[in-house]
Specification:
The chain has about 150 residues and is mainly beta. It is about 5% helix and about 30% strand. It contains one helix and eleven strands; from the N terminus they run βββαββββββββ. The mean pLDDT is about 80.
Length: about 150
C-alpha cells in the first residue's frame, strides 16, 4: 500500500486524465493505480496524499468522514477594518472576514478562531501550533504561531 505525499504545483489539475492540454498529476507521477485522497483547486498549491488503498482514500475524502478544518488564507495589502469575502469550494459557500489589523505581505489571515495550542494546518501540512488565541480576522505569524520550520 504506497502512500505518496506530493507537493502539487500551481495550475495542476488533481486528476490523472488529460483535460484540454492542462497539466495533471500524470505529468509528475508515473506510479500506476494510485489516486488522490482529496483535492486541491488547480489554482492552489500544496501537499496532497495519494494512495492505492480504496478504503483509506474513501475515509479521507468522503463527506461522511469529514473532520472540521481550520483555514488560514495568505493575503497581501490588507488594511485593518477591510472586509474580505472568499469562496469556499467545499460546500459552495462564502466566508466574509474583517481584518482586525494590517496584514503584512506573506502573513496569513485566520478565517475561523484558533485556540492556543491548536495545530495550524497550511495546504494540508502541519506548520506548527498556536502559542496564543488567534481571532477571526487576525493575522497569524511568529507572534502567535510557533512554526516547525525553525
Amino acid at each position: 500500500m504506497p502512500l505518496i505525499l506530493f507537493n502539487k504545483p500551481f495550475d495542476v489539475l488533481c486528476q490523472f486524465s488529460a483535460q484540454d492540454g492542462r497539466a495533471t498529476l500524470a505529468d509528475y507521477l508515473a506510479i500506476p493505480r494510485i489516486y488522490p485522497a482529496g483535492r486541491l483547486d488547480a489554482d492552489s498549491e500544496g501537499l496532497m496524499l495519494l494512495t492505492d488503498d480504496g478504503q483509506l482514500q474513501h475515509k479521507i475524502a468522503h463527506p461522511d468522514h469529514k473532520e472540521s478544518k481550520t483555514y488560514l488564507v495568505q493575503v497581501e495589502g490588507v488594511k485593518a477594518g477591510q472586509e474580505l469575502t472568499g469562496w469556499v469550494m467545499e460546500g459552495d459557500s462564502t466566508v466574509t472576514v474583517k481584518a482586525l489589523d494590517d496584514i503584512p505581505i506573506g502573513h496569513k489571515l485566520a478565517t475561523s478562531p484558533i485556540r492556543k495550542d491548536d495545530t495550524v494546518i497550511k495546504y494540508g501540512h502541519d506548520i506548527g501550533r498556536a502559542v496564543a488565541d488567534i481571532k477571526v480576522g487576525e493575522h497569524c505569524h511568529v507572534h502567535n504561531l510557533k512554526t516547525k520550520r525553525w
